[in-house]
Amino acid sequence: MTRRYDVVIVGGAVIGSAVAYFLAANPDFGGSILVVERDPTYSRASTSLSSSSIRTQFSNPINVRISQFGSAFIRDFATTMQVRGEAPPDLNFHEGGYLFLARTPAQETTLRENHAVQRDCGADVVLWDRDELSRAFPHLRVDDIRLASYGRSGEGWFSNTGLMNGFKAKARELGAEYVTDEVMAITRQGDSVTSVTLRSGEVIAAGTIVNASGPRAALTARMAGLDIPVEPRKRTLFVIDCATSPEGTATVNGGRLPLMIDPTGVFCRPEGRFFLTGAAPIEDPAVDWDDFEPRWEEFETLIWPALAERSPAFEAIKVVNQWAGHYDFNTLDHNLIVGRHPEVRNFIFANGFSGHGLQQGPAAGRGVSELITYGAFRSLDLSEVGYERVVENRPFLEKAVI
């Protein structure tokens, strides 16, 4: 006998589990939920390999508001997501802020334009001139900096697997089911998807299918005869040790350093007694879904020169760990795609986060659950980042992409 679920979610990492949680927690949704996850270790999931940070410093109001909800949700996570009989989940949220540095007139203009958007949304972000920047973070060389943008609250970094596992545990407690298997085919009849076929051979009937399969989103969509402009792009992260650490030297935020984005695009933030750093590669092609070999050369050619120029504290550093993960990169406009397919209405996308999935997961999960339960967004209107713009080839560009 074929099993049937009201909602089948393809992918059980942070996005899929957020959808499952918000559906299961909504008293207006009384349906059944199945999450299909191919790798229960999540060892190569974008969630597990992410730098897992959150910021409100975006150029589009919708992205600012998505992160504002995410920050509030992360702060209350221990209470909201506690499972009976277990200790409250601790995401270890370090609210250290983001620091964007502008060196050119064009970069300065972008920071000022972005700040106007962020301020209108109520984000706690300030602009600093060179002297203000130097006083706040005296370890930095700032002679070439025209302007800095600093998030005083609502920004920082947290546990990536903690967020995912918290969503998953609470969703299961509330009735969502998880199965370790892989979706190999999706049956479609006209303008509706009707079932998924698993690698195990089981066919499961579905009222709604949610594509939450990260960098493999295009593979899942193709099974239903659909397209989505998402491909895996490799990002290598490096953990470094400093001979003389600058952590504790700031004159703001209790001495804690922020996540700094250098004008070169290199980012760096504290990670315990170490620092985490990375950069988008100069050449950024799509990679194979199973290619997780770090790009070792990026540290010597891109990262270390930029960091050493920015601070004497980063002149004497060494790599103590590194790994590569995948962005589910939206080639249209680097923005999330959340919404129904305009023709196949019971196929919902939650894809293309382009490196922002951890911070946007709470809002995306809530939004998808509202689409399924009410037929429309209720809490935050995500229509601007819906699938329709893909069909119309209408990019919704985000200038603040890292």
TrEMBL record:
Molecular function GO labels: oxidoreductase activity
Membrane-spanning intervals of the chain: 7-24
UniProt-listed PANTHER family: FAD-DEPENDENT OXIDOREDUCTASE DOMAIN-CONTAINING PROTEIN 1, SARCOSINE DEHYDROGENASE-RELATED
Pfam families named in the record: DAO (PF01266)
Domain FAD dependent oxidoreductase: 6-371
Name of the protein in its database record: FAD-binding oxidoreductase
Keyword Membrane: yes
InterPro entries according to UniProt: FAD-dep_OxRdtase, FAD/NAD-bd_sf
Superkingdom of the source species: Bacteria
The UniProt record lists the keyword NADP: no
GO CC terms of this entry: cytoplasm
Keyword annotations from UniProtKB, A to Z: Membrane, Oxidoreductase, Transmembrane, Transmembrane helix
Record GO biological process: mitochondrial respiratory chain complex I assembly
